[in-house]
Amino acid sequence: MSRLTAALRLLREDLQVARDRDPAARSTLEVALAYPGVHAVWVHRLTHRMWRSPGLRLPARLISQAARSATGIEIHPGATLGRRLFIDHGMGVVVGETSVVGDDVTLFHGTTLGGRSMTHGKRHPTIGDRVVVGAGAKVLGDVLVGDDAQVGANAVVVRDVPAGSVAVGVPAKVKDRPASSPDVDHCEDPAIFI
């Protein structure tokens, strides 16, 4: 498979995930033209590739800042993003330099994956696969949010969240997800659930 074919497949996947996770998405064209979360992810793919070449780090930062101005979403070029990331609404989302985001993650508006220290090295969170981070939530420091976890709206996470758990409150407290808990993809409004 050529690079171009792989890139086009990835772009189509990004469009499809937005259509799948946002009931308001009416068409693939609408998503391609009007979804800032998709645009921010696309620009990040370019800037992240540039970031890996030390001579291109400044241009990568400048392009990422232009994308921030256009989308309201700031993703540092050094951050590592998995596949099928969906940023819903997006305004105010911040993803720090050493953040690692797994596959099939959903970030709602106002989410911060930020640091708590000014030291060099890993200082931002690692988000597992299939995690949902609610509107306004802050995940701070070198913490791990395990696979299939949910972070509630406006929660402030400063400690690890085990896989399959729900973290709510300030500071966030971890709760086991009830067995009867609905799947977030089938909730009317997942931001309310979490």
Describe the structure.
- With 194 residues, this protein is an alpha/beta fold.
- It has a single domain (3-193), classed as 3 Solenoid (UDP N-Acetylglucosamine Acyltransferase, domain 1), CATH 2.160.10.10.
- Helices cover 31% and strands 20% of the residues.
- It contains five helices and 15 strands.
- It has helices at residues 3-21, 28-34, 36-51, 57-71, 190-193, and strands at 74-75, 80-81, 86-88, 94-95, 100-101, 106-108, 112-114, 126-127, 132-133, 138-140, 144-145, 150-151, 156-157, 165-168, 173-176.
- A six-stranded mixed sheet has the order 3-6-9-12-14-15. Strands 1-4-7-10-13 form a five-stranded parallel sheet. Strands 2-5-8-11 form a four-stranded parallel sheet.
- Strand 14 and strand 15 form a beta hairpin.
- Helix 3 runs antiparallel to helix 4.
- The N and C termini lie far apart (40 Å).
- 36% of the residues are buried.
- Mean pLDDT is 91; it is low at 188-194.
